[in-house]
Amino acid sequence: MSANEFKIIGKDLFESEKIAKPSMTFWQDVIRRIKMNKVATISFWIIVALTIMAIAGPFMSKFSYREQNLENQFLFGSAAFAKGHYFGTDDFGRDLFTRVWEGTRVSLLIAVVIVAIQGTFGALYGGIAGFFGGKIDNLMMRFVEIIMAIPSLIYIILLMVVMGPGIKTIIIAIAATEWTSMALIVRGEVLRLKEQEYVMAAINLGASPSWIIIKHLIPNAMGQIIVRITMDVPRVIFTEAFLSFLGIGVPAPFASLGSLVLDGYRLLSNGAHLFIIPAFFISLVTLAFNLLGDGLRDALDPRLRK
Amino acid sequence: MFKFIIRKLAIALTTLWVIASATFFLMHAIPGDPFASEKKVPPLVKAKLMEKYQLDKPLIVQYGNYLGNVFLKGDLGISMKIRGRSVNKMIINNFPKSFILGVFAMIVALAVGLPLGIYAALNRGKFKDSLSMFVAILGISIPSFIVAGTLQWIVILIKQSTGVSILPVAGWGEFRHVILPTLALSASPIAVIARMMRASMIEVLGLDYVRTARAKGVAYYTIIIKHCVRNAILPVITYLGPLFAAITTGSFVVETIFSIPGLGKYFSTSIIDKDYTVTLGVTIFYALILIIAMFVVDLAYGLVDPRIRDGKKRGA
Q: How many CB pairs (< 8 A) connect A and B?
């Protein structure tokens, strides 16, 4: 090759500075990373499918969740299927298929409402404690520690006796004990975030503390909050199931996934399907939320990126 | 050192006092009394009962008497539901059973969780890693009563199909009885330990001294065990403190399913029955164990990581 085969093409300053790929916001990037994570994507679609079934499932069967038929006790298999009981029947001849979706509906509803209440309260509490710091922070955190040290069952029962049994009471009682960990996480994040320049700028421009907490600090801690919320859903479902185990859960004839599993456990010798089917679905729900939470954490945390 | 112990003791006693007081007043805030749920008790008998357990006195007097008995005499009182049974005796009788189960479960959790986490970290991003972490997340996602119930169901199925009973389904007394509850109790700690160990191993594996050790030709397994595991295990040790307190004081679910006369079973039912003395006694006992476990964890830090020990000496 000789030198005259080359030619100088110069350099285009404008062209070399051009950003070839479209620019992405933080959340667009997070969604792109979640989509690349197969496990998290599958979990997300499992949650969507279970939610749809929780809404539509009870209408897909010709039986209602409380309809009893003592002639059809403990049916399972092809005989049950022929009668329209896809998952068989329980000790009162109630249709398990309808009850499982009704239970999923109740469990998901309780979990979503509780997580929304405790998430909002915990985030505001942690935000206030972290932002003001000093004595206010100290006092607020001692209060959280006392709440965490006392067995949560005591408050739950106190609230239940005061408000009477029912789904509303369960929601308030569990939310009243679960917000503390969210408060701790948001406080930690806020302590880190409030030292950054944009907060100083906001203070100097005269923004009020409530504006800074709600508009600047909490949105910036959103990543941690979302991961925590996703992981809290299974925890709340467990707590509700534990209350059912103690006999103070969702009152009959309502069903939650937890109460169905426990009823099934008591009737294990009559028909294993009553235990295994609800146990499968409760595990599927919690597994899907945990895996999605894991995927979100990986997508949100720059340190975990490869 | 003497000053350090005195300070630790003062903090521990204050914590115990706050927990005892908060629990005492919350328990008494629940409407009703321990004798309300029983069959109709004649008013005179009930008044006698209230007098016997001093429930007729003003709350503040009850509180003072209770604190005096607990902190000065170490007497946790008499159960209000199980007649004539002292709470101290209840803890002495039932705690060892929960304790044995808890210690077994912790050994299993460490023996399975640590290697699983290390294995996943060493194979980071590969299929082996995903599989290990999937197993671990199963342990967190499946509630203990489902693990316990499924284990029992499998044992029953084996007995029905082959006629051999490999393990007792429930009960207490022999080693055979410990196996199933231990498995049920350890499922979730295995998962937590494996995930923690994986995360901190990945962090440690990327540090400079690991590269230095490799560069100077230290054997692979020596690096993993001597350099990485020892540094990566610190978060797991922190977790062991609260875990020890929670797991050795018994799980209501596992003890009920396997009919084990442990402490967990009495505790949850005592709250529902408003058996004030049992609830308070077990809560204080639990807090005490938690404080001791956290203290041991603090000491263990120094053993595992000399940097922390030296730092403390310089600070004090």
A: 99
